[in-house]
Design a protein that fits this description.
α2 crosses α3 and α6 crosses α9. The chain is an alpha/beta fold. The radius of gyration is 24 Å and the shape is globular. A nine-stranded mixed sheet has the order 2-13-12-11-10-8-9-7-6, with helices on both faces.
Length: about 400
């Protein structure tokens, strides 16, 4: 009995080792990780896909997804190829401000306007590439004081409602009747506000990293909340502000950023900008941190952003955007939100989803705030493709 029992144990041990080696090699070969969006609608079960990691080519990305249920493969979308504008110019929108705008893609295509974040972030050539250039007439513009708009970092005559009317001014200037509106972060705030003000001019909305400029959102990121996740970068954010002023960091920063002392302004602008760049991705991106080193860009970004934050965006109430969603529920829309977005936490996107259940709602389970994260980018391009023939 002892001999047979011992032989049985040896055989079982060998079999387990073989099975372990087989499973390990199989996992290495496929390297499947759940990372695509969970698509949520009331009354539907979540749908999650898993990613198989092949190589990624430069330019358009070609990662593949494997479905949990049917073993089929679908391509993860990347940016469209680089393009140059066919038209650009400045539009005078007030006695003080001229805004930069450009057009690229198909002049006879479906008009889409890209609304950048910040406020104060400005646009870049990358922003043209979320849209099929054969199908879309792609319009980018820099909001007052941002990017190539002049005067740079100017706070006078610079409010949410000025920007809403600038968008309308630009639409009329370009002879467009209705357009698709695309915006992320602060761009989602301005997109929603524009749509709620001029719903008859919006064909569809693509919204990412939802931000409503509510007081609780501002305090989370700029006073107490996100600092618990990034205490190392928070120390650098605190550094320009004396301890006695730290009870109201937004107010203190606003005073520093509007100071007559240029050295104080620049120091505060870089610290403010680095904090947001450090927290924008699931993994800290050194290239984003370097962007905050520029004197001009950091002042545009920090001065204008802080100006909007201390004034509550000039909204009538703290929840005005959510309260007015009823005005736009008939408009086709896609909402995309990173699960681990620290800059614009998912609570706001979730509240918008509950108010607007007709809109497509995608939660990216392995992403933060940035459009450079693969799952977010995939869903943005999927959304623009959905609306390109409207």
């Amino acid at each position: 009995m002892y001999i047979f029992h011992r032989r049985g144990l040896m055989l079982a041990s060998r079999l387990l080792r073989k099975l372990s080696r087989y499973r390990l090699s199989r996992n290495i070969a496929t390297s499947e990780v759940c990372r695509t969006s969970t698509i949520l609608r009331f009354g539907q079960k979540p749908l999650t896909e898993c990613l198989t990691r092949p190589s990624v080519t430069a330019g358009d990305q070609t990662r593949q997804f494997r479905s949990n249920t049917d073993n089929t493969m679908s391509t993860q979308r990347g940016l469209f190829p680089e393009i140059e504008p066919f038209d650009s110019g400045k539009l005078k929108v007030s006695e003080i401000h001229d805004i930069y705008y450009e057009q690229s893609g198909n002049n006879d295509g479906n008009p889409v306007i890209f609304i950048h974040g910040g406020p104060g972030g400005g646009t870049s050539s990358r922003d043209r590439r979320y849209f099929d250039p054969k199908a879309y007439r792609i319009i980018l513009f820099d909001q007052r004081g941002a990017g190539k708009s002049t005067p740079s970092a100017e706070l006078r005559e610079n409010t949410t409602w000025d920007l809403v009317e600038d968008i309308e001014h630009l639409r009329k200037h370009l002879g467009i009747n209705k357009w698709v509106v695309f915006g992320g972060s602060w761009g989602s705030t301005l997109s929603l506000t524009y749509a709620e003000t001029h719903p008859d001019r919006v064909k569809a909305l693509v919204l990412r990293g939802i931000f409503n400029l509510r007081r609780r959102e501002l305090l989370w990121f700029n006073q107490d909340g996100a600092n618990h996740l990034f205490p190392d970068h928070w120390e650098s954010y605190l550094a320009p502000i004396p301890e006695g002023e730290r009870g109201d960091l937004m107010g203190a920063y606003y005073r520093h950023l509007t100071s007559d002392d240029e050295e104080k302004r620049i120091k505060a602008a870089k610290a403010w900008s680095k904090w947001e760049m450090a927290t924008s991705r699931l993994l800290v991106d050194d290239d984003l941190l370097k962007r905050a080193e520029g004197d001009i860009w950091s002042q545009q970004f920090a001065r204008i952003e802080s100006h909007y934050f201390v004034h509550g965006g000039w909204f009538k109430t703290d929840t005005q955007i959510l309260d007015d969603v009823e005005k736009i529920r008939h408009i086709p829309a896609t909402i995309i939100q990173g699960r681990y977005d620290v800059v614009c936490p998912m609570e706001t996107a979730w509240l918008l989803h509950k108010k607007w259940p007709e809109a497509d709602f995608h939660v990216i389970p392995d992403a933060g705030h940035s459009t450079k994260e693969a799952g977010v980018l995939h869903q943005l391009v999927e959304a623009t493709d959905k609306y390109k023939n409207m």
